[in-house]
Specification:
This protein has about 260 residues and is α+β, with helices and mostly antiparallel strands. It has two domains: about 160 residues, no CATH class; about 60 residues. It has nine helices and nine strands. It has a seven-stranded antiparallel beta sheet with strand order 3-6-7-2-8-1-9, sandwiched between helices. Strands 4-5 form a two-stranded antiparallel sheet. The chain is elongated and about 55 Å long. The relative contact order is 0.15.
Length: about 260
């Protein structure tokens, strides 16, 4: 069963929603990713030589056993890591380390298997960049792994009532934040963006897929041919992919 995801503007809102869900959903199914870290959480992340505590690059460092959150919510595990391009991330939940590993592997070619043998096997890898973008914007991501369709519907209703943005909404917001610039650049070359947008956007998003990130279009094309068999070789898709990759390279330069 595919996880249900809600994106919250603050950690406090996400924690309140998590606590409310626990009345009906087992806590082992509820996972929280948040960039809102406390000094204690950051200080507990092991540092590499010559680095200050909290600035290390260690993955999945355990910083607490059972810890209290907003409203007295107890959790079984609290993890912290630095996700490239985002910064310090706290993950709460028994299996949250798998998500941290997947996000941390972005651009390093190590994502393969990061979500295997975990409860997140049904999580679409092509959505991971949306999680990363949400965290980069300071939002918190609540992930629930339901056992049934009815439970999934229940969770969706609860998250919506709590003011959470769905992963589809977050993905659309991510695109709208770049659309005008991409439209302008596309039309300078004489293209009809309104007509070609679906293929261009598909290519842009494809460049953010974990298996493609960091690769040129030519390097990724064999995989793209299986992911997007009908459009991978269209001019709009190819240009979208190249633009998406260019944006990633610009972001990495800014971080470094």
């Amino acid at each position: 069963m595919e996880p249900v995801v809600g994106v919250f503007k603050s950690r406090a809102d996400a924690e309140r929603s998590s606590e409310a869900l626990r009345a009906e959903i087992a806590k082992s199914k509820i996972h929280l990713l948040t960039p809102e870290t406390t000094k204690a959480e950051l200080a507990s992340v092991p540092a590499e030589e010559a680095e200050q505590p909290g600035m290390g690059k260690a993955m999945g460092a355990v910083v607490g056993g059972a810890m209290g959150l907003a409203g007295g919510l107890e959790v079984a595990e609290l993890l912290a890591t630095l996700v490239p391009g985002v910064g310090a991330i706290v993950a709460i939940g028994l299996s949250s380390s798998a998500i941290l590993a997947a996000l941390g592997a972005f651009g390093g070619g190590a994502i393969g298997g990061a979500l295997e043998n975990s409860i997140f096997t049904e999580l679409p890898e092509e959505e991971l960049f949306v999680y990363k973008d949400a965290l980069k914007k300071g939002r918190s991501v609540l992930i629930v792994t339901p056992d049934s369709g009815n439970e999934a519907n229940f969770v969706r209703e609860k998250l919506k009532a709590a003011g959470a943005e769905s992963i589809d909404q977050a993905r659309q917001d991510w695109w709208l934040g770049m659309r005008n610039v991409e439209k302008e650049k596309y039309e300078v070359g004489g293209g009809d963006f309104d007509e070609d947008e679906p293929e261009f956007r598909a290519g842009f998003e494809a460049s953010h897929h974990p298996e493609n990130e960091g690769k040129t279009y030519e390097q990724a094309d064999p995989k793209l041919a299986t992911q997007y068999p009908e459009i991978h070789d269209s001019p709009a898709f190819r240009l979208g992919y190249q633009r998406g990759r260019s944006k990633q390279l610009e972001a990495k330069k800014t971080v470094n």
